[in-house]
Amino acid sequence: MGAGGVRVLLLSGPAQGGGGVEKLAGALGASGLEVLRAGSVREALSVVRSDAALGAALVGWDTTDTAMDGPAGTGEVLRAVGERFVRLPVFLLVTGSDVSGLPLWAYKLIQGCVWPLEDTPAFIAGRIARAVADYREAVLPPFFRALRHFDAGHEFSWHTPGHAGGVAFLKSPAGRALWDFYGEALFRTDLSISVGELGSPLDHTGRIGAAERNAARVFGAEQTLFVMNGNSASNRIVGHATAADGESVLVDRNCHKSIMHALTLSGAVPRYLVPQRNGLGLAGPIPPSALARAGDGGPAVSAVVTNSTYDGLCYDAVEVAGLLAPHVPRIHFDEAWFAHGAFHPLYARRFGMAVTPEVMDDELRPTVFATQSTHKLLAALSQAAMVHVRPAPRAPVNPARFNETYLMHGTTSPSYPVIASLDVAAAMMDGASGTFLLTEAITEAVRFRQTVVSVAEQIREDRDRPGWFFGVWQPDHVATRPVEDLVSDPAAWSLEPGAAWHGFTDLRSGYCMLDPIKVTITCPGVTADGAVQELGIPARIVAAYLEQRGIVVEKTGDYTLLVLFSLGTTKGKWGTLIDALVDFKDAHDAAAPVEELIPDLGLTGPLPDLCAAMHAALQAHGLGRLLDQVFTDLPTPEVTPRAAHTMLIHDDVEQVPLDRAHDRVAASLVVVTPPGIPMLLPGENIGRADGPALTYLRALQAIDQEFPAFAADIHGVHRDQGGAYHLDCLAFSDSAVTPVPDR
Ligand SMILES: *Cc1c(COP(=O)(O)O)cnc(C)c1O
């Protein structure tokens, strides 16, 4: 591999004999390396912390050089290298007589010393260029390394894909545009599995097998499988591989629809574990008491727990495993939003693969599966996901048999670019590099959280304007504790029993924690314990305003907005968001016209009037209370998800308006976001006309009809031209209701 475009850090102080160092810099440049000169420890630290493309570091060592802060300064730079890079070649640039005084740990980090006054610059530069090339090869994970070599071979292909390394695209103008857009490399490496030397994800052989084993090591699993159809496929694989027709499965009611799909495929019978909700409408954890009682309905073959939740609540996975272990031999943690859990001490014990033989005896320990959307919070292409397995003697996992189910949910034409991105995602998280990247994301999230609170305080103190502002859903002490504490102390984020901020009850200390990188911004209107405030700023209006400014949030609730600080967050990116929130406040307080602020809505009138009208509507319908009833008083299952699907196949399904849907059975999943928890599952009875489900849906329908520009996000509801809701119901009888077309 060439070293073109690779940077080398060169830190030397003025006392280090200018001539030799100058010549060395010239020789490094001549060998194709870009030299970044740093004249002080501070400059060097900033390069080390911000430049991942560094290929080597040359660090001056001169005990007499005061500009360099002597050995202490050098030590600081070396330590920073160790905190970020694995195996980066580091050389000490020695101009004095010896390297005595170098601490022992530093010897481990450095690859050698160079003496610019003794050896020729060309010789030293050659040594360094060699080390850079070796390093750049060594950092590549198994599959991606092989893929690059394969690409360099420029073979002709006679197999699928038919675009043949991209050549087919060049034969048409649209194809040419695609080829130009993505560049040749994507197409050259989009290969079929007939390329034997790269291996196959279908039987986990070759370099792909090696990449999966490397990922298993990095994520702490006994076995890891790469999945190319998203974590939805991971969930179907695990669900379908662990429960058979008619067997009972304990299922977190706060589950993704792919869990439902797995039940439909397997014919298993779900029994639900019900999480709490708070006054903000956020879904909380399943209380420990519910897990302890989970066996009441009889034996079950496995349990599925969403960890973390969409809003960033993660469990002490070891405690959850201990509570569920008497009832089930297997636990499936859906960690779609938590692939980063294994890589920072803040999350110790919070992720599925933490349930190891070291923390739980084999007689009790359940087999654990963790399914992760690698693409959601780590760096990987969309659809890149993983299944991690840690089997226990109680429920062994035979890899060959498990693979039969894996194959049922995979494709026989997997995408090599997606596999390469999974391989690289694991490499990025390996060792010091993973902790460094997460520390950066967590630090940014904490700084954002603190800034929102301090802006709110400044506004309150400023007598000249109304005192309201947005808040952040978090423990109160987050506003005042030092950032370093908040980045390192898991207790700082715990949902402690009795603390007012979270609004949940029935917890144990340390059982559940808020992941700081998932930030819920709160708007005035309601509090976590359900109290209603006079001033209300519905979040949907804020979200529409932010979108107009080019800021798209992850999720919008009635009075909450969720933003994510992933590995892709750049420093200070959040400044724009705070600025926009302050502008929204000012526009509200100045009664600015909606048609100017958010022209896309097609509405007119002062912003505060719109906010007040929607706040009044949300409160008049008592949405918060209704939501609570929907999830306290669960619908009765009439048929299994599989039986409901059989009727769907036979078209024994009709769309029924809400006023006729009472006592009917749902044919498809109904999910209102937030809280994003299924309120009706296929096969469940919709209930009485004045029951919780229909009362809640009628309220949403009324608010939608009043504010059509802000229609709620509901999966499984069809709206007709007038905005009336219709539900898919199973047609057991001869009831003749004509379906409405989807709007
Ligand atoms: C997003 C999500 C999934 C599905 O993951 P994809 O990678 O989008 O297929 C599964 N479970 C939960 C909890 C999710 O949020």
Question: Overview of this structure, please?
Answer:
It is a single chain. This protein is an alpha/beta fold and 743 residues long. The chain folds into four domains: 7-138, 3-Layer(aba) Sandwich (Rossmann fold); 202-432, Aspartate Aminotransferase, domain 2; 433-474 and 516-606, Aspartate Aminotransferase, domain 1 (Alpha-Beta Complex); 623-730, Orn/Lys/Arg decarboxylase, C-terminal domain (Ornithine Decarboxylase, Chain A, domain 4, Alpha-Beta Complex). The chain contains 25 helices and 24 strands. It has a seven-stranded mixed β-sheet with strand order 6-13-12-11-9-7-8. It has a five-stranded parallel β-sheet with strand order 2-1-3-4-5, sandwiched between helices. Strands 14-16-18-17 form a four-stranded antiparallel β-sheet. Helix 2 runs parallel beside helix 3 (70-84) and helix 23 packs antiparallel against helix 25 (692-706). The longest helix has 30 residues, at 432-461. The structure holds pyridoxal-5'-phosphate (PLP). Residues 230-232, 235, 256, 258, 306, 310, 334, 336-337, 373, 385 line the site of pyridoxal-5'-phosphate. It comes from Actinomadura logoneensis. It is an enzyme of class 4 (lyase). Keywords: Decarboxylase, Lyase, Pyridoxal phosphate. This is Arginine decarboxylase.
